[in-house]
Amino acid sequence: MFFSKSLAVVATLALGAISSVVARPAPLETSNVLARCGCNSPAGIITGVTTSIQVYTGQLRGLAATEVTVDAVVPIVSEITNVLVGATTKINGLLGKDADIILADADGSAQVTAVVVAQLIAALCAEIFGAIGVIVNLGGVVGISAIISIFVSLGEVLGVFCGSCFSIFAGVGLDVKVALSPLLGGDILAVVARLNLSVLQVALGLRL
């Protein structure tokens, strides 16, 4: 009798475990798409760039007017440039991938829209041009023309990165450029105009 009751208890527990497994909803298809690809999505790459460069933009923001020199700025800008160049290569490497990979969000759990991607790029632009704006608006900077030329080069690299992002999303039907323009604040546009970044203006579809 005791043995029968024990079997009944074990059977009940086993059935409960099976039921819980059966009842658990299957993960969305997109939750595994990046694992299958072994890659980051474009949204994840953009987010990663913004996160990676914050240490360097913070260094720019922290410079006093007397510390703003070519020797001080070049190494910082080079680090930001390297991040952007590497990310551009990653974006271009996703050309030809399935739409579910291109449209996946940073962790692959959902799909992005044009507005969501535009918000990510706007945040990246704000991070970079916010830091540049601090420098170019400082008074008493010696050799500011040389400093500005360094920032112009950085802006051009950013323009290339944005162009790659626009292209890869356009391939799956998202017009990110149109969604981006309204999200770029006046402070960003002022810095772009100050640097006369024609390459970036064309890339972002800006009319200043």
Which key terms come to mind for this protein?
208 residues; 10 helices; elongated; 70% helix; mainly alpha
The structural class is mainly alpha
Oligomer: single chain
Task: Estimate percent helicity.
Answer: over 70%
The span between the termini is 88 Å
How many domains, as an integer? 1
- How much of the sequence is in beta strands? under 5%
Q: Biggest β-sheet, characterized? A: none
Ranges where pLDDT stays below 50 over 5 or more residues in a row are 1-31
Taking all residues together, what is the mean pLDDT?
Answer: 84
Number of helices: 10
Count the E strands.
0
Note the overall shape. Answer: elongated
Order of helices and strands: HHHHHHHHHH
- Radius of gyration over C-alpha positions, nearest whole angstrom: 24 Å
Structure description:
- The chain is built from 10 helices and no strands.
- With 208 residues, it is an all-alpha fold.
- The protein has one domain.
- It is elongated and about 55 Å long.
Task: Quickly describe the structure.
The chain is 70% helix and 0% strand. The chain contains 10 helices and no strands.
Write the SSE topology.
Elements: H1 2-23, H2 33-37, H3 42-61, H4 70-92, H5 99-102, H6 114-136, H7 144-170, H8 176-180, H9 186-195, H10 198-204
